[in-house]
Amino acid sequence: MKALQPVKALHIITGLGVGGAEQQLRLLLRHMPMQCDVLTLTNPGPVAEGLRADGVRVVHLGMRGNRDLGALPRLVKFIRRGGYDLVHTHLYRACVYGRLAARLAGARATVATEHSLGEGEIEGRPLSGGVRRLYLASERLGAATVAVSDTVAARLEGWGVPAARVHVVPNGIEAVRFRFDEGVRRATRARTGLPERAFVVGGVGRLVPGKRFDVLVRAVAALPGAHLLLAGDGPERAGLRRLAAELGAQSRIHLLGERDPLGDSADGRTPGIPALLAAMDVFVSPSREEAFGLAVVEALAAGLPVLHVTCPAIDDLPAAQAPGARRIGTGTEELVAALRGHMEAGARRLPPPPVVRRYDIARSARQLLDVYDLALAAAPGATGAARGRPGADPVPGAGGAAVVGAPREPAGPGPAEPTGTG
Fold first, then answer.
1. Separation between Cα atoms, residue 135 and residue 93, nearest integer Å
2. At what angle do helices 294-301 and 20-29 cross, to 10 degrees?
3. Which residues form the domain of 73?
4. Does residue 311 lie in a domain region?
5. Total domain count for the chain?
6. CATH number for position 341
7. What's the number of CA atoms in the CB half-sphere (13 Å) around residue 150?
8. Is residue 315 located within the same domain as residue 399?
9. What are the distances in angstroms from CA 260 to CA 23, 74, 202, 356?
10. Are residues 135 and 27 in the same domain?
């Protein structure tokens, strides 16, 4: 049997601040059996630091904006000199520039993941005809487009992307991180200043208008004695704080800022998302539009009952897959009534439902490798596959990352590295 050659992959993403797509990339790379580097066009934020801690090389292109056309030749040069077999792009700007750069650089195959496509917006911004035309023009330059849910796949096909080019690879989680622990619950409540027996509502996400966390603040404010833990940051934070004060609930509305979805801070002083979920009694996702709804799946893994307006990760499946999740309308009064029902029933923990096993990150990684194999097999002169050499044992890297074949290149600056750090 002919030995397959190892593959070197580059992931290009618009930015590495805290966000669902960014965190999903970090988690996914922990389960990929190949050398993977990451290039961020802008904002090498907290997720870049986490990737580096995991042993992943991260490069910042230093792109100044959507129309910084000078970034294209720098990106082409970086891909060409890096000798990447496969380029995988994430988020709109990275997909547009990255697919073109990969084609010009002669990369064997290009794959893109569509993380955040809604009915009327993409990545929280309104869709326009120009945005759609540019997306479709660049999509043809790649070998495949990955959708994070059946809902997103249907939207792509509705745009005119051929169904044969669309592959569903759902987001994933490491469920063991969210397993409920009563000791963690008590400790987290104490650290966040919550009364031990308080009824605690939770939410996680970017504080932007589309997430509609103002509805959640109003609903909790209308329930005397209830508290809200809201993890995330964004332009709406100051407005939500003012709203809580206007409603006389500022002592019960806890705006926590960004928190690590993988665990507590390195010094153990700042609870991460798993610990915060342990401290909650019910989880709410009030957003009108979602491409997947990862926070809902994490809450279910923590044994929480969930109220959500929309969540393709759940809505695309039979109800038996997530019996603890309940879909509600967009009105504040309906949310207040639903929360009051949970409050009166008392706190209860549920067993993780079947949907949690379905969205295991290791399973998602295997599905993505299948897409890579198809893309590379269709490339001119294809001689390898994405899984590395058969029989080769993965070599553990920092943070549990796995590398097949040759050791990972040093994390420092490499050849033709554009304005960035390694």
1. 9
2. 60
3. 8-172+360-403
4. yes
5. 2
6. 3.40.50.2000
7. 6
8. no
9. 9, 32, 15, 20
10. yes
- Whether residues 26 and 139 fall in one domain: yes
206 assigned to some structural domain = yes
| Residues in Cβ contact with 177 at an 8 Å cutoff, skipping those fewer than 6 apart | 262, 263, 274
353 with 364, same domain: the answer is: no
| Average pLDDT estimate for 42-58 | 92
3 state SS for the chain: CCCCCCCEEEEEECCCCCCHHHHHHHHHHCCCCCEEEEEECCCCCHHHHHHHHCCCCEEECCCCCCCCCCHHHHHHHHHHHHCCCEEEEECHHHHHHHHHHHHHHCCCEEEEEECCECCCEECCEECCHHHHHHHHHHHCCCCEEEECCHHHHHHHHHHCCCHHHEEECCCCECHHHHCCCHHHHHHHHHHCCCCCCCEEEEEECCCCHHHCHHHHHHHHHCCCCEEEEEEECCCCHHHHHHHHHHCCCCCCEEEEECCCCCCCCCCCCCCCHHHHHHHCCEEEECCCCCCCCHHHHHHHHCCCCEEECCCHHHHCCCHHHCCCEEECCCCHHHHHHHHHHHHHHCCCCCCCCHHHHHCEHHHHHHHHHHHHHHHHHCCCCCCCCCCCCCCCCCEECHHHCEECCCCCCCCCCCCCCCCCCC
State whether 20 and 148 are in the same domain: yes
State CA 204 to chain mean position distance: 12
Residues 339 and 386 in one domain: no
342 within domain boundaries: yes
Give domain status of residue 409, yes or no: no
Is residue 193 located within the same domain as residue 97? Answer: no
Using the structure block, give the residue that is written with the tokens 């040759």. 406
Comparing C-alpha atoms, which of 362, 337, 356, 422 is closest to residue 82?
422
CA distance 5 to 385: 7
Residue 83, pLDDT above cutoff 80: yes
The model carries a pTM of: 0.84
CA distance 403 to 400: 10
293-309: pLDDT as tens digits: 999 999 999 999 999 99
- Domain check: are 40 and 95 in the same one? yes
Q: pLDDT tens digits for 61-76?
A: 999 887 888 899 999 9
